[in-house]
Amino acid sequence: MKPTLKRIAILGSTGSIGQQTLDIVRANTDKLQVEVLTAQNNADLLIEQALAFEPNAVVVGEEKYAYVKEALQKHDIKVYTGADALCQVVQMETVDMVLAAIVGFAGLRSTIAAIEAGKSIALANKETLVVAGELVTSLAKEKGVNIYPVDSEHSAIFQCLAGEFHNKIEKIYLTASGGPFRGKDSKFLSTVTKADALKHPNWSMGAKITIDSATMMNKGLEIIEAGWLFGLKPEQIDVIIHPQSIIHSLVQFQDGSLKAQMGLPDMKLPIQYALFYPQRVASSFKRFDFAAYPSLTFEKADTATFPSISLAYEAMRKGGNMPCILNAANEIAVSSFLNDEIGFIEIPKLVEHCMNKVSHITKPTLQQYIDSDAEARKVAQSLTKKKIHS
Amino acid sequence: MKPTLKRIAILGSTGSIGQQTLDIVRANTDKLQVEVLTAQNNADLLIEQALAFEPNAVVVGEEKYAYVKEALQKHDIKVYTGADALCQVVQMETVDMVLAAIVGFAGLRSTIAAIEAGKSIALANKETLVVAGELVTSLAKEKGVNIYPVDSEHSAIFQCLAGEFHNKIEKIYLTASGGPFRGKDSKFLSTVTKADALKHPNWSMGAKITIDSATMMNKGLEIIEAGWLFGLKPEQIDVIIHPQSIIHSLVQFQDGSLKAQMGLPDMKLPIQYALFYPQRVASSFKRFDFAAYPSLTFEKADTATFPSISLAYEAMRKGGNMPCILNAANEIAVSSFLNDEIGFIEIPKLVEHCMNKVSHITKPTLQQYIDSDAEARKVAQSLTKKKIHS
Question: Fewer CB within 10 Å: C terminus or N terminus of chain A?
């Protein structure tokens, strides 16, 4: 083991972010070393990755444990399973940084475990901050842990803040492509299919995030996340529709100056920035060319047609477990939509119903977050069922 | 005198930049104190400014010396005249920072004097670096002096580099409005009048700079200036036409990420940034609003119609005294145009002729810069006369 290498644990290595992270490792073997890989179901890809990157340990979902164990038994790679194992591997002494890319609420516990062990966090899991932002950011502060955002919008803000942390932020603009249904009305949205919603114009992402992008709940979650990451109030966060996805977000300082981070839509850049911050490592990523983008356009977000954004602001203002409820209900709603159980426009309706039904807790403990999450899911599921049986 | 105040000398206080600087002082009397004001001809405004800001000293052109001396005699304000006096006042112990806003070659000596005395420089005078960039930047390095750019484009680059000075710049984009004749051809340009050329679409500036903006020599000078300020080669500097003047310039780093600084066209922002760097002081400057700019557009610069840009790249590549020759010839050409002695399209032609006629010196001394400047002016003037008499 070369001591100058940054040793990373990639949680969710078979997902879109995980795979792109491994591409970056491949291009920077002199700077990065993979210590841990984890996946839930995609055992074959996990095995392939493990054989290529030779991590110290892998963690896989229970159903695939025996299969992966068998495949890796002749190699010096430990194989574990279970949520506890996930929390333990990120705390290993040989891990310097944890790239948290497990999608959804499932990513929360392991991220907290990594922060508790003082590991730097490259955060691709939105839910960690959406669900338990107060808890997570105060823990990170206590442990002196830096959280580097991987989301392109938050990375853009973070890049704009380099050298400016002493300066007051007046507001930020989170840019949004508007998704595949930008410019459409509610009537149109009532007819859209799963296939329509899965076609994102600019970004290639996992199914959950792609649907969130179509409902604009993705932007809603990002608003809440940005609040925690950068210490902002709801009124300091604005959403601006920018269909070309070239300006990834902007910061406006108290002198009125705006800084923007720009580039072609490519998640590798923010991942790499998080891995190497404050260094910018040379890359062969395709460069932006103004000739291909003679016009960058901007529109106000249509919150009447896409109520998810307003729901997120509301959850942020109410605080406590409300963003957790919003997130849990949304996860169920999206999964129900992907299972053809509910229609597209019912996704935000279901979220709103849950926000009204599950009781609000102002200062939840981790256990109360977990309970709120479970309750919101139960309520959301029952609403889905009702709809199906009605 | 309160010790926490930053004490500034404003060279060229009656010009556009000088006046705007005083507006900033007016809004920040708890942070800034005017030590020196200087002007060439506008005696009445200089007197008014001196009475309002009570500087330690003022310097004025010889013709107005007696008049200003008389007006200020009952006040505790010293009045000087002459180039030597200009160099001496900037070196006074009570001056912390020199805002160098004298237009043209005339600003060079006093800026060098300020650097020699170890004063921080807020640089609004392009020519200092265009003419003698090598000499000035190496002197600044030797004296540990920081040069803060005031030009909106260079300020934008400088703002984008905050927190990034350790990272390699791949390239920069200097944005250009394109001036009043964007999209026109040479035939059209052969018909334009002084009045046409003095109408800039976005910025309100002095006459010299406004004409430079119409010929795009302004951008040419900025290319050379950027090379010295940020240590860039000609091929690392690109010009992109952006008619709205909202993105003030961009930096592309070696990871492919672009950072842009944006805002409404208002010179007060870059002036204030230079005065207070690295602090951003709260301002009441009008804020940018995406609703007013639904589209930001970009075009390639038309160097066939506007050859000044190509001339500047050529001067930069040749180096030595060539940018000095370009600058001197341009000053004469613009002034001849403003005196109705030559036509608009003859401005770059005259510059090109001078670049071919005046002998190239690879490593000039300050005296050789001064001589090259004088020679280029003489050659330019003789070409102007020839034209008039032909």
Answer: C
